[in-house]
Amino acid sequence: MKLAAPRIAPLPDQATDPAADSPTPAAAVPNVFRTLAHHPKLLKRWLVFGNHILFKNALPARDRELLILRTGFVCDAEYEWAQHVVIGRRVGLTEVEIARIAEGPEADGWSEFDRVQLRAVDELRTDSFIADETWRALSQRYNAHQMMDLVFTVGQYTLVSMALNTFGVQLDDGLSGFPEGTRS
């Protein structure tokens, strides 16, 4: 469910870029950070984990973004989807692939490994568990660190999706939501 207005409004003044020590114009800081800035201690500690998942993850960047986009989609987190469409494009996901993420692992056109990654997201979301067959297929390509990062990536973005949806974080200017026709 998308809220038409935020439950916790982004801080309009004195917003700070979480990666910098100096004040940044509020318009330059995404709504997610300006919203979480209401709880500075939480924001600071969450950023450590979030930065690992986004920037120090053992997964290839394209795979990470495939997982994040599918997680955002199945969690109905339009804000997450919109932010990571931009990142996904930067790391090599095509427009066709991005649109196909909404269709899921059984959509035509996926490589077998992409299909398995998407299936892992769906299984984690549905059962909080990756099935043995999916685990075996993932472990053909991923080492233990990567397997762990996969689970924690889906978990991190499930948590973020819950927060975004519940707080009513609105899309930042210039971003588009879900692909046409994928939501009622």
Task: Itemize the secondary structure elements and their pairings.
Blueprint: H1 31-36, H2 40-55, H3 61-74, H4 78-90, H5 95-101, H6 112-127, H7 132-139, H8 144-167
Helix pairs in contact: 2-8, 3-4, 3-6, 3-8, 6-7
Characterization of this structure:
The protein has 184 residues and is mainly α. It has a domain at 58-167: Up-down Bundle (AhpD-like), CATH 1.20.1290.10. 57% of the residues lie in helices and 0% in strands. It has eight helices and no strands. α3 crosses α6. The model has no long low-confidence stretch (mean pLDDT 92).
| Annotated CATH topology of the domain at 58-167 | AhpD-like
- Unreliable stretches, pLDDT < 50, 5 or more residues? none
Terminal Cα span: 10 Å
Overall SS class: mainly alpha
**CATH class category name of the domain at 58-167:** Mainly Alpha
Order of helices and strands: HHHHHHHH
**What integer value in Å does the Rg equal?**
17 Å
Inertia-based shape: globular
What is the gist of this entry?
With 184 residues, the protein is mainly α.
Key structural traits:
184 residues; mainly alpha; AhpD-like; 57% helix
